[in-house]
Write a structure and sequence with these properties.
Blueprint (H helix, E strand, L loop, with lengths): L13 E2 L4 E2 L4 H13 L3 E3 H6 L1 H14 L5 H21 L3 E5 L4 E4 L7 H4 L1 H4 L3 H6 L9
Antiparallel strand pairs: 1-2, 3-5, 4-5
Length: about 140
């Protein structure tokens, strides 16, 4: 299944009551969802939708963008907004489907980079060897 690239708005939504940017944006929601996801190995999609903090943040974004929105329409837009954030996480490889029919997602854990994997030859050297192999530049170079 190929997902289209999802571009999230980097512009804060406008609060029409005070005519100033709202402190929440889709990027804020994406970061909050990314943090929520990173604390899990796998999760059921509806658990993400039911998460109180993420849902409130998404509701704040929708309400700021559409003040006075009908509660039913608001809920649909909240779900759509959270779905876009999840698609973004899927497209960047942060999560992947473990079971698509049951909407279970697995968090892709990036292995920690250790010096022994990156520079094994440097770790095995003693300091005299390292200093001997150091490149020294003089003014002529």
């Amino acid at each position: 299944m190929i997902l289209p690239d999802v571009v999230l708005s980097e512009i804060d939504v406008q609060d029409t009551k005070n005519n100033r940017p709202s402190p929440v944006s889709e990027i804020t929601l994406l970061d909050a969802i990314r943090t929520w996801v990173s604390k899990r190995d796998e999760f059921f999609y509806l658990d993400l939708e039911d998460d109180e903090e993420n849902s409130k943040l998404a509701r704040d974004i929708v309400q700021a963008a559409s003040p006075g929105i009908h509660p039913g329409r608001e809920r649909m837009q909240v779900i759509e907004l959270m779905g876009r954030c999840l698609k973004h996480l899927l497209s960047e490889g942060t999560v992947e489907f473990k079971n698509m029919e049951r909407m279970i997602l697995r968090v892709v854990k990036v292995p920690a980079v250790t010096a022994s994997r990156v520079l094994p030859e440097v770790i095995d050297l003693d300091m005299d060897e390292v200093m001997h192999k150091a490149i020294v530049l003089d003014d002529s170079e």
